[in-house]
Amino acid sequence: MKASVKPIESLDPRIEQLSQLFWPLSDLERRIARRLYQLLAQAGPVVVPKLAERAGVAPQEAESAIAAWPAVFRNDSGEVIGFWGFTIPPTKHRLIVGKRTLYTWCAWDTLFIPEILGEPASVRSISPIDSAEIAFEVTAHGVANVSPPDTVVSFVLPKGENWTRDVLTNFCHLGHFFRNAHEGREWLRSHPDGFLLPLEQAYLAGKLKNRYEYGSLEAEHA
Fold this sequence. Notes:
By secondary structure, the chain is of the alpha+beta class.
């Protein structure tokens, strides 16, 4: 029997809001952002000259771009160690790509960053309610091997024009995995502006976010 497909109008309308939280990137910004993600995943802290070389831009262009972007973190040597959900310092959200263990700022980051890297990933995280493990795989086609199977993701849409000045506090630190909606609703009691999405819909929101920001990623990874 052919599986039924959920019509787009039945999806949570906040998926579109999530997908357009950030701005569409210019061609130059797309090249720099993609290469920065990839270098963080492959080699750890990133120096700007190496980023510029990989992106095919002048060092001054790369420096100007990342200096203007919110949520870019550097160490004392000026190397980039955190960028748009991706981080070198460990967090509770582990993104395992090949034999490399990487980390993200929030639950949602684990769902859209693998596509930008052009690689499948295994995710290991914990629920903030009881520290129970959440585990699944992210592929080009969705999520698989989800444990527990009813895992949901929490979101709180940021408010105010200047929320990107502190993306971590205003958005990222409010994104968690929960074993099921019942557990997630416990967390919502203290976060009444928040909401939950099933893992598959949170993945779709990340897919749409990538399209809105980057356009097609297929050509980049071809």
